[in-house]
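Annotated sample (chain length 646).
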Amino acid sequence: METQPLLLPPLSDHGEVITFYAYRNDGSRSAALANLAVLLARRRAAYSPVLMIDWDLQAPALQQYFAAPRNHPGVLELFEACARQLALHQPNGICDDTLLAYEVLAAVDWEQYVLRVDEGSQLYLMPAGRLDEQYRERLAAFDWEALFRRCPALFRCFAAQMACHFRHVLVDAESGQGDTAGLCTTLLPRKLVMLFGPERASLEGGCAMVRRAASYRCSHEDEQRPLLVYPVAVQLEGDDARLRSLRRHGDGLRHAGYQQELEQMLADCYGLRQLSLDSYCDEVQLQHSRDEALQLAVQATPEGDRHTLARSYETLLAWLEPGHYPWQSQAQLAVLDQLALLPAQLAGNSLALAQARLQQELGQLYGQQQRWHEALACFEPALQLRQQLLGTEQHETLASKAAVAAAQFQLGQLEAAQILQECVAEARDRLLGAEHPDTLAARSALAVTLGARGCHQQAMLIYDEVLAVYGRVLGSQHRLTLACRGERAQQLFQQGEFEAARSAQEQLLAERKRCLGSEHADTLASRSALAWTMLQLDEPDVAHSLLDAVLQISIKHHGLHHAAVQQARAALTEMLKQTGSHAGQHPGQADLVPELRQDGALDAYDEALLQPLQPLHPLGPEVAQRTAEQLLALDQLPATPRPQGS
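Output written by the structure step:
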């Protein structure tokens, strides 16, 4: 290939450095980098300069993708020149490490180590080095650690200088945990793409390198810069769906899946209590074929075909290029993209209202992930905009107030939540009427907050008033009526009135089974709530059986790895822990393995609950109750004496 002179003026704004790292080298890392580089270079009408740096000096591969000449100087020669310049530096000269680094880089004329590899776009390559007969000998003799000690800022400044001239700088890092792998992952990038294959060592080694890079950034004052990490699972061609699912989710017993380990690693690195990679792991997976390792998939496949590796690279870029976090869902990315485009489409009040709508939608998505700080950060500006433009009592403004209050409640800001909920309830009562569904929903939300603040009498009064309206207007079997009954029963539980809570929960469980079916999500929620009440009433066997059934039904409907199954398993495990049960002592522990079983005893329990059902109004202590002995007999478990006075 004929070398072209470079015309690389500085960018108006800085680009970014992205390192690609894999603990084990199977070719997928270089393939991913080469394909993504082509995609990035051809965006924005091919005016964005993109640089690839082949820093895998032991096994350079990028030249082969672009038929680049083997005799072109590259990374090794560049830093050999830097070492020679540093040797000429006098101790009484420049003392500032950063100034010294930039002086050295200016002296070596870095542009001579870069060549253009695509005439259809501004795609450039800095190869590993001149692959002549002395290459291996020169590489073995070069001391990277000594170069770093001589000028610690050199590699950071090199990355910054490349980012001044290229929109994207993609670094192909050496595998393993050697010196060059460390500097490529720790000192250079703003973003780190960690690829890992099916082998356990590939995942563990990659996670170890990410933790090392994050720890270094946090502990060294000069290196405290953002580092966004994007883990990417590489599946082997021919793997079936069952095997891919097992690798991702684990077996639920001895081995955790890679998603769980990645979530823990990212949570530790970013100081987050919890995060979910469900959407990201659903979408971002690469299929690797060794036979096609040196082909550019983005050029070899037709555009628009979603069943291609090229589409997989495009999907990864949806998170990577804008700098979205991997725990942001695809739905959130869509809203964020819309927000970014709005200023070019609208102006004035129309722009502000559209921004408020999208902020509200984004906050709701964060709330679904239990990320309430982020949700509140979206709800509050949406509320402010709507109050300014629409007034304090318009429907959308009241919806924003309710959303802010809900987030405040989840964050423990109960007094602030109560104030807003009282405003919403009062305004909806006055504007819509006392029996409007929105008014009743606002009053129910207020009752939950009052109960959490210990205002139990006020909360119960609201619940009874709301239930009376629901029963009269919607009927006793409407989902809102049943939901409100569930909240009222939970309030009884919080007050410590466990017998009353038990009675209300039993009736609700029976009614939901009758109306919705024994395996509906709301029915399972009733079983779970009743289980914790039975535990408080010192009936652990019944409690275990109820949670056991919830887990089995969840597995039956969703498979082993659904969020509902994980939640049910966690609840049963927590209950077993609280009661001191062990894996071999309680039949419910069988829930922790994949086998399904039909819990006929619990079906009998539900059927028995249906028989003495009383009218729904009024809801009070006169509801029919059963003894613990009767409950246990219905579940075909040996009865145990209840403590005196219970």
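Annotation: The chain has 28 helices and eight strands.
Annotation: The two ends are 88 Å apart (CA to CA).
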